[in-house]
């Protein structure tokens, strides 16, 4: 029968109960024999053994039937919301099975012992069955406790897995926002270079751009990368922008070597550099200086605000994207400050996982 298949049994019970069944049956058989024993009689050792084997037989029958019903009910009512219904049905089944099996067994034992000349009325005493029913219910309560614990762990594990899938989906969506956005701006830059400079400059730009896209292909699916990798990507991006702006775009950054192994959200620094260039004047009369520094656990990017006269309203998509990605993978978020004269963003630098754990 399918429900007695070992794997199915373990699935519905929550554990392999072979040894628990053996010990439980032995214990209940001794209790049953003791309760049915008449203290006023002094039967021989042979009759004691016969009585115990009979009790063992009836206990095995009780146990297997109740255990089968237990598995059947768990298969029929697997949900947490059905727990009360399942437990009440199980208690009813325990009472019914013990009354039926043990009364029939007691009646047969009474007939047997009466033929041997012993008083056998106590073998059909319903009151004797009450402690057996209570002990059996307590035994099944152990099954229920184990089953509840196993299901609770699985529920927490499934919930965590679902949460991880949702986070992964959101991160994928955010990454997919960044990459087309970057390509669009890069093509605009290429157009400006073609209009302003020579074809050789445009060729250099395309070469640099292909290198950047190799980086995106390699690390685009990562939640976090080392600061060293992000700096390499940012430098490649700045080299492209220097093709367009020359000395009008200036960077001041000195990052200590011991910080290079810290982790950062991919393309976050590049987005901040792009944001600064996009929203500020970059010209010979008003060169744009972007300063990048590192504190204990943050990468700070700041620039003076030089608003363009033809400035289009900012949707702040890039900043929102960075903040959302940090929120999904850590309990830290970027700090953004705008005092009207200077724009500052502090990106959290995260410790590698083995150091955080």
From TrEMBL:
Keywords: Kinase, Membrane, Transferase, Transmembrane, Transmembrane helix
Protein name as annotated: Histidine kinase
Origin organism lineage: Bacteria, Pseudomonadati, Bacteroidota, Flavobacteriia, Flavobacteriales
Database matches in Pfam families: His_kinase
Organism: Aquimarina intermedia
InterPro entries (UniProt xref): Bact_2-comp_sensor_kinase (IPR050640), HATPase_C_sf (IPR036890), Sig_transdc_His_kin_internal (IPR010559)
TM segment ranges: 12-35, 47-66, 87-108, 128-150
Entries under PANTHER family matching the protein: SENSOR HISTIDINE KINASE YPDA
Domain Signal transduction histidine kinase internal region: 169-249
Molecular function as annotated in GO: phosphorelay sensor kinase activity
CC terms in the record's Gene Ontology section: membrane
């Amino acid at each position: 029968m399918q429900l007695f298949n070992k794997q199915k049994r373990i699935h519905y019970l929550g554990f392999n109960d072979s040894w628990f069944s053996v010990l439980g049956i032995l214990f209940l058989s001794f209790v049953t024999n003791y309760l049915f024993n008449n203290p006023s009689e002094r039967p021989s050792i042979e009759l004691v053994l016969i009585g115990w084997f009979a009790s063992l037989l009836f206990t095995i029958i009780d146990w297997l039937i109740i255990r089968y019903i237990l598995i059947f009910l768990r298969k029929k009512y697997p949900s947490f919301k059905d727990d009360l219904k399942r437990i009440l049905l199980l208690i009813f089944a325990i009472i019914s099975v013990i009354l039926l099996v043990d009364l029939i067994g007691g009646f047969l034992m009474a007939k047997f012992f009466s033929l041997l000349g012993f008083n056998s009325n106590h073998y059909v005493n319903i009151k004797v069955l009450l402690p057996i029913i209570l002990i059996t219910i307590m035994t099944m309560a152990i099954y229920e406790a184990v089953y509840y614990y196993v299901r609770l762990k699985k529920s927490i594990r499934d919930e965590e897995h679902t949460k991880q899938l949702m986070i992964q989906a959101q991160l994928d969506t955010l990454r997919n926002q960044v990459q087309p956005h970057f390509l669009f701006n890069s093509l605009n830059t290429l157009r400006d270079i073609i209009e302003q400079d020579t074809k050789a400059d445009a060729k250099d730009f395309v070469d640099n751009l292909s290198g950047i896209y190799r980086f995106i292909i390699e690390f685009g699916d990562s939640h976090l990368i080392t600061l060293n990798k992000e700096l390499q990507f940012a430098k490649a991006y700045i080299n492209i922008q220097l093709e367009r702006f020359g000395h009008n775009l200036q960077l001041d950054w000195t990052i200590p070597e011991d910080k290079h192994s810290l982790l950062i959200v991919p393309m976050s620094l590049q987005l901040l550099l792009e944001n600064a260039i996009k929203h500020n004047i970059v010209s010979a009369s008003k060169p744009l200086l972007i300063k990048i520094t590192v504190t204990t656990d943050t990468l700070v990017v700041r620039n003076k605000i030089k608003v363009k006269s033809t400035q289009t309203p900012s949707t702040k998509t890039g900043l929102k994207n960075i903040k959302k990605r940090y929120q999904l993978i850590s309990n830290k978020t970027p700090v953004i400050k705008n005092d009207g004269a200077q724009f500052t963003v502090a990106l959290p630098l995260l410790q590698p996982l083995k150091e955080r754990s």
